[in-house]
Each structure stands twice: as C-alpha cells, then as structure tokens.
Amino acid sequence: MSVLLTDVESDVLDAAKAKLDVDGMVADLASKQGVDEFISDVGTNFDIWVHAAGITGAKGDPLQVRDEDWDHALNIDFMSSIRLARHLGPAMIDKGWGRIVFVTSENVAQPYPDETVYNASKSALLSLTKSIAMQHSGVGLLVNCVAPAFIETPMTDGMMQQRAEEKSCSFDEAVESFLKEQRPYLVLGRRGTVAEVAPTIALLCSNRAGFTTGANDRVDGARSAPSTYERRRDRPHTAELIVARDVLFLNSTSYKGALYGSSSYHPFRPPAAARRIFTSRHRQAFLDQHSVDHSGLHPRRRARRLDHC
Fold first, then answer.
1. What gap in Å lies between CA 129 and CA 225, rounded to an integer?
2. N or C: where does the chain have the smaller number of CB atoms within 10 Å of the terminal CB?
3. For each successive 10 residues of the chain (309 residues), what is the average pLDDT?
4. For the chain, which residues make up each domain, given as ranges?
5. pLDDT digit string (tens) for 125-143?
6. What is the per-residue pLDDT for 227?
7. Per the residue annotation, which of 118, 185, 229, 255 is the catalytic one?
8. Whole-model pTM?
9. What is the pLDDT of residue 112?
10. What's the CATH class of domain 44-219?
C-alpha cells in the first residue's frame, strides 16, 4: 500500500513524511486551479481518500463577517472537498470500491456563535457527505465523516497561543480556561489527541465498516450541548409541573402542543404519564393562568381537546 500526504506548507509536509515514511506533495487545494494541478500530477487512482484540510477562519459576530472571509474559509473547508470529489469519486465508483472520509467537527452538532464560517463550512461538508452517500449507494463507494472535538493540532495550538497572549497567561493556563469557559460539557475535560481520532478514521476506511455510509462519527470526549430538557430548565419563564419522576415543561410558545397532544408544537414531547398529571382542576388553573380561550370552539371539540391533556 502506498500513501500520499499533501500540505500547503512544505516544512510541515517534510516533517510528516519523515515521521511516517510516506510520500508527499505540496498542494494548495484552496482553488480550482490548485486542485486541477494536483490531480494532473497524481492522477485519480486512489482507493482511500481522507480529507482533513481545514481552517477556523474569521471569528466574531455572524452578522459582521465579510465576504472575503466567507470565501477564504469555504474554499478551503468546503469547496476543496467538492473539487476533489468530482475527480476521485467517479474513479472509485468505476473500480467498484472506495472509501472517502471527510473530517468535520463538533461544530456540526453544536455550532459556536463566534465561529460562524467554520460552523457553516463543516456543516455543508456533512451535507455533501450524505448527498454523495445517498446518490451513489450500492456501488462500492462509502462516504463518511469523523467529527473531532477539541484536539491537539496545529490549528488549536494556534488558537490557544493567541488566547495565552490575549490573557497574559501560559499556554497550559489558556487551554485550561478555554475548557472551563468555552467547552464546559466536554466530559473528559481535556484536549483529545490525533492518535485518538485516527482509529475511527481507519475503521471507516476498512472493510469492517462496509455497512456504514453517510455517517458522522463523533470523537469528542462526550462533548454535547445541554439537552432541550436542560436548556428549558434554566429558562426563567418556564412553567414547571412535577409529579414523581415525570416532568413536563411548558412555555409560552409550546404549551398548546402539550394541551392538544401535538409534537409538532412541542419540541419535548412529554410521556403520557406526565400528561396525565393534569386533573380537571389543574387544567382549568393552567388555562386561566395562560389566558387560553377555547370559547370559539364547538363544545364537543373543546372538551375533546382538553381531554388530550
């Protein structure tokens, strides 16, 4: 098996080649011309393609990001994937076997407001993955994503170095404060390593993952945003009714769904046991509190809707 690495920086590429004892080529994949030149040099005869090119891009207010910042990040994080896929995907389909793994991010599942261009480009990459996987299923080509969280890479090293300078602290203190302030739900409480991400990528590239395509495998130290349950619990305007172990949260925008038994109104669909906690007295008190007017309904329909509680 032969392996080919690419990087836009020759010194970084040389170090990786020496460490891994593989071939490498300097390539700038941020433009169509760069991709076309790369393919012209190496061809399309590849069985496995792992796409890890990416930058954080501009940060700040989503409404203040400039067009050039969007173009820069999208060309590297997203368009490079499309341009290479147009070359490498059909060749793998023709051979009847191929594996493509795109490296996305935890930002796909939990975007951060100051990383808008990165959020959008990585989310677009996941959508591309699913589209290719669905369009070309059953022909030997499997396309998947791996979504790491806060991993020890040159990109996050640069982020932490900048944070250390801004806060006048050490690099380790910058990492510690970032985890505490920006990643409080990263359960393992540390940065992951490349060696902890690589096995998931290797699995998706193997025959053992022959029934997996269009997936986004998360390697994130159990990093997840607080659930809908937790977010609603912290809202000061949320009405809370508790009976035994069943909790039903209702707020001003979603209580109708619970009353009428419609999950389309209520993002957290309460179990039947929780809905049954409303006695006639509870129902009327709740309706009075929230000024729900059913007077315009036919009496039989009004009674039926109230019974859905």
1. 23
2. N
3. 91 92 95 96 96 92 95 96 97 97 91 92 96 95 95 89 94 94 86 93 95 94 54 40 36 38 43 48 59 54 51
4. 44-219, 228-307
5. 999 999 999 999 999 999 9
6. 42
7. 118
8. 0.70
9. 86
10. alpha beta
